[in-house]
Amino acid sequence: MICQNCKKRTATVNHVEVINGKACAQHLCAMCANELFGGFESEVQNALLNGLFGGALREEKICPACGLGFSEYERSGLLGCPSCYDVFNEELMPHIARLQGKTMHVGKGGGVYTSEHDIHIRLSALQEEMEKALSKGDYIAAGRINEKMNAIKKRSAGGRRW
């Protein structure tokens, strides 16, 4: 159901008010409900809600471009716009890793690097791995990573596609 106030976002708050013995219902999104009726800002109200729901209330992230909340993504599995990927990046990465096995795009070739950009990304990732290995004192692993980096640089200098 769409918010009756802004007519943009999904209604998540149902506000029922009895006026002169007649019930009037409004279906609002969280942002409009907060604007119209205010949030639960007092400590007493928060303590009461924590007791009712058995834990601390967490504020939901909402995409500023489309108004989608992360709970809506969890319910439907669909994001609202491209900026949702940036806003929910931290929450999405475990979902993407679980579904696809990887969080980095490897293209149709499945790891075959063909463009300079792909080569640069792979070299940057290997550089980070090598620095971690060196900081741990694992010089053997660092040497292997260095060999991989040199092989990639050699192939890219030769102009071969791999």
Provide an overview of this structure.
The protein has helices spanning 30-37, 43-53, 70-76, 83-87, 89-100, 116-136, 139-158; strands at 13-19, 22-28. The protein has 162 residues and is mainly alpha-helical. The protein has a two-stranded antiparallel sheet with strand order 1-2. 10% of the residues are buried.
Strand order in the sheet with the most strands: 1-2
Let me know the number of strands: 2
Sheet of most strands: 2 strands, antiparallel
Globally, the shape reads elongated
Computed structural class: mainly alpha
Compute the number of helices: 7
Report, as a whole number of angstroms, the end-to-end distance.
51 Å
Query: What value does the Rg take, in angstroms?
Result: 25 Å
Helical content stands at 40-55%
Strand content: 5-15%
Name the average pLDDT: 78
